[in-house]
Amino acid sequence: MTQTTGSDTSRVRLGAAGAAVTLATLVTNALAYVVPVLGARRLSAADLGALATVLALGAIAAVPGFGLQIAVAAHRARWGGDGAGRLGLRTAALTGAVTLALAPLLTVLLRLPAPLTLLLATTTFATVMAGRWLGELQGDQRFLRLAVAMAVLAAGRYGGLVVGLLLGRGPVTCLLLTTATGLLALPLLARLAAPGTTAISTPGAPAGARDDQPRSAEPGGPVPRRLDARQVSTACAATLAMLAISYADLILARQLLPAADSGAYAVGSVLTKGALWAPQVVTLLVLPRLARGDRRARLVALALITACGAALVAAATIGGELAFRLAGGADYLHLADTAPIFAATGALYAVVFMLVNDRVATGARWPAAPLWVATVGLAVCAALVAPRTVTGVLSCALVTAAVTAATMSWLVFRPSHRRTTQRDRVAAATGQTGVDGDSPHTQTPRTPSRWLP
Question: Looking at the record, which segments are called Disordered (predicted)?
Answer without folding.
Answer: 203-226, 421-453
